[in-house]
Design brief:
CATH topology of the largest domain: Tachylectin-2, Chain A
Number of helices: 3
Largest sheet: 8 strands, mixed
Number of domains: 2
Radius of gyration: 23 Å
Length: 495
């Protein structure tokens, strides 16, 4: 029976891979609409700034002049690994970004800019930094990210102050990336995500005005009166004085933006009556990197412009910065409106698959529905297989074993974060190749050699167990990769 189910699972997942790619391309001609959760939502389908793989937009106003900092590049052929800036004009919107910061031999990204709490008129920027050598390795790219600091008097000419969060972040040796800085008195609170191979958590490091590390703590999430590490990335934190709470936005994988509140900045929970996620991508879109710009209405109440990046899932990259404007009252259901959109349509909480002309994107919808249907069949077959298999051990989900040599490998993005899709050729005569997906949730420290790193290249030998059918999106290909999720894994040395 197990052999039959395993063969059926191979057939279904292979079929899903073959038919999902061409159908998903049909819907790739436009960026699908981003919509807010609620009984009635409105589209935010027009990017306020077109940028290739843009990340972490930060917006500040100085003397009425709005300025944005972000990573990415304005065109595919522009220089990579730089930080850009853009200024806002009331008539024409945001100007084309221009590079303002780089570090020789390193890639920099994810800028978070604040006003210096001590030096009047000075900006302070915190950014992710990794050596170009490490960035070129699919393994080290996930392990060796750090956070640097720079200062500027005009937001254009920057002076690098070096690394403030290295591999030792003050709590462990997991480094940090994607910082969010917020000024608290004469301190700067720096929130950031940790590196792999363990699950990505959120830490907070308190810095003095001179940049000295005062304390690093793990950020926690309240869940049914229990505390657990908050898992997430692309965090943005600020203090809402109207409600007297700290407010955090972060990615819900790449499918939406969620919001939490806190009394102390360490223990977080959902806001009262919040409808999370507050930003929900359409079924064929990606969203990430939320950042709040705080403004006030005529009566002095807080209003928020929520910026985030988005793009089509078929391409696996972001193509623009979007803005949800006029957001207020963090303890109530909210509606997001794109002020640049000419026609407001009503969308369900799951978003829409229409294109920018208002016509239905039938190709993308059909492809998405068919792919979901096939994956659903795969899930049913996979579940039958899992429930029929013997348990691995107490506390570990049931599944099947795998092993073999990598004959194809591709970095991808899944609901669990940056992942790796591989095709293995099992040992044994006439056994067919099969596909598996490594995720940040894969246990890689209990199978020799220990600790094991994620799959790296063709020729490596892998051994482990899988649990459920899974999918991820290729970074630069209009292709959805299907396979079985690796539950535990060990890998031979890189070859």
């Amino acid at each position: 029976m197990l052999e039959f189910l395993q063969q059926a699972l191979v057939l279904v997942l292979t079929l899903a891979s073959l038919i999902s790619a061409p159908l998903s391309v049909l819907g790739a001609k436009n960026i699908q609409h981003m919509a807010a959760v609620g009984s009635v939502s409105q589209s935010a389908s027009i990017p306020v700034l077109s940028v290739y793989n843009g990340m972490s937009p930060t917006i500040l106003s100085n003397g009425g002049q709005r300025q944005m900092w972000l990573s990415g590049k304005p065109t595919k052929n522009a220089a990579d690994g730089l930080i850009y800036t853009s200024f806002y004009n009331q008539e024409s919107g945001w100007f084309e970004p221009r590079p303002v910061f780089s570090v020789a031999g390193y890639q920099v990204s994810d800028p978070s800019v604040v006003v210096d709490p001590v030096v009047s008129g000075r900006y302070r920027m915190y950014y992710s930094v990794i050596s170009k050598t490490d960035a070129a390795s699919s393994t080290l790219l996930r392990l060796n990210n750090h956070i640097g600091s720079a200062h500027s008097d005009d937001g254009v000419e920057w002076v690098d102050d070096g690394v403030v969060i290295g591999q030792n972040n003050g709590l462990d040796d997991r480094g940090g990336w994607s910082p969010s800085a917020t000024v608290m008195g004469d301190e700067i609170w720096l929130y950031y995500s940790t590196n792999y191979p363990d699950k990505v958590n959120v830490y907070r490091t308190r810095l003095s005005a001179t940049g000295k590390k005062l304390e690093t703590q793990r950020v926690l999430m309240v869940d049914q009166n229990s505390q657990k590490p908050l898992e997430g990335f692309n965090v943005d934190v600020h203090l809402s004085r109207d409600i007297g709470k700290y407010v955090m936005f972060l990615n819900k994988d790449f499918t939406g933006v969620v919001r939490y509140v806190s009394d102390d900045g360490i223990t977080w929970t959902t806001a009262k009556d919040d409808k999370n996620p507050v930003i929900q991508a359409a079924s064929s879109s990606l969203v990430a990197a939320p950042t709040v710009e705080v403004v006030r209405d005529e009566e002095g109440r807080e209003q928020y412009n929520l910026f985030f990046v988005g793009g089509p899932i078929s391409k696996g990259l972001f193509e623009g910065v979007y803005q949800a404007a006029n957001v207020s009252n963090f303890d109530a259901q909210v509606t997001f409106v794109d002020p640049k959109a000419k026609d407001y349509d009503t969308w369900s909480s799951a978003g829409s698959d229409r294109d920018s002309s208002g016509s239905s994107g039938s190709g993308g919808s059909m492809g998405g529905l068919l792919a979901v249907g096939v994956l659903g069949v795969a899930a049913i077959v996979g579940f039958s297989f899992l429930t029929s298999a013997a348990p691995v051990a107490a506390g570990v989900a049931t599944g099947g074993s795998f092993g073999g040599r990598i004959i194809a490998i591709m970095p991808c993005v899944s609901a669990l974060g940056p992942s790796v899709w591989v095709t293995l050729k099992p040992s044994g005569f006439l056994l067919p190749p099969f596909m598996y997906i490594w995720t940040p949730a894969t246990l890689t420290n209990i199978v020799p050699p220990s600790p094991s790193l994620p799959p790296r290249n063709i020729g490596q030998q892998l051994l482990g167990r899988f649990d459920i059918p899974f999918a991820c999106v290729g970074p630069f290909l209009p292709f959805v990769f299907y396979g079985l999720r690796m539950q535990i894994m060990g890998a031979s040395p890189v070859v």
